Amino acid sequence: MFERGTDGPKVIVVGVDDSDSSWRAAAYAAGLARRQGSQLALVYVQPVSGMLALTGFGGELGETTESVADEIVRQIHEAADRFGETTSVNWQFHTLVGDPFTGLATTADDLRADAVVVGASEQAGHRVMGSLAVRLVKAARWPVTVVP
To answer: What is the mean pLDDT of the segment spanning 81-110?
Structure first.
């Protein structure tokens, strides 16, 4: 029987989007994964507008979101290479298209995550509509850590 929260986190999901706060969240989650011997799932959710490019309506926008994903993977590999053999973080990179909340929640559920880590929102509009972190906390399915 699967049981969450026993013997430390086995899977940690972290949202990355190339913002400074998401990189801080990724670094925090990587340290936690290393110390706990957890699997680290880095998740980049391409905006829905990226999907328009796939249908021919988005043009350069789809290429831009794809290049963001490529750049994130490149930076993750560089960071992993910098730490070399001294770290034993088992990590995966997931790219999805859609709403960040839905993408992170679906990935966390699919992987049976024990924890979700996100960076604090840097967008002023989230004070009105609610940030990704607030939405994840309200979902109440996993412990959520918000890294400033």
So the answer is: 82
Distance CA 99, CA 68 (A): 16
Query: What's the burial of 13, exposed, middle or buried (CB within 10 Å: 0-12/13-18/19+)?
Result: buried
Could you tell me the two tokens for 6? 């026993």
Q: What is the tens place of the pLDDT at every residue in 67-87?
A: 777 777 777 777 666 655 445
Run of H or E including 101: helix 100-110
Measured in whole angstroms, the distance separating CA 46 from the mean position of its chain's CA atoms is 11
DSSP annotation of 86 reads G
Reference 25, options 91, 117, 143; nearest CA is: 117
* 115-119/11-15 β-pairing: parallel
Residue in this structure with the two tokens 């794809």, named with its chain if needed: 66
- In terms of pTM, does the model score above 0.85? no
Backbone angles phi, psi at 145, to 5 degrees: -110, 130
Domain annotation for the chain: domains and CATH numbers: 11-147 (3.40.50.620)
Q: Which residues contact 37 (CB under 8 A, 6 or more apart)?
A: 8, 88
